[in-house]
Specification:
This is DUF4351 domain-containing protein. The protein is built from four helices and no strands. By secondary structure, it is mostly helical.
Length: 90
């Protein structure tokens, strides 16, 4: 018969090797999740701006936006989306 042991997060973190690994993993997971959320939010805002200004977007424009993960590049794309007068400028 298997034995089940339940540990609280605090108990696990109190063990020297395990605690450090858990803390590092948790921080990395949170950071990556926040970055992915920021990336997706920027992509969504760029698409929304362009769709409001120009209507239905060509697939290549959508693909260009969705294939970009660099946050600084996405911020520049968002600025450009706001300032351009025609979709050809994007």
């Amino acid at each position: 018969m298997p034995i089940t042991i339940e540990w609280t997060w605090e108990e696990l973190e109190s063990y020297p090797g395990i605690g450090k690994a858990l803390k590092t993993g948790k921080e990395k997971f949170i950071k990556e999740g926040l970055q992915q959320g920021l990336q997706q939010g920027l992509k969504d805002s760029i698409l929304e701006i362009l769709e409001l200004k120009f209507g239905v977007l060509p697939e290549d424009v959508k693909a260009k936006i969705n294939s970009t993960d660099d946050i600084e590049v996405l911020k520049e794309m968002r600025k450009k989306a706001i300032l351009i007068q025609s979709l050809d400028e994007f």
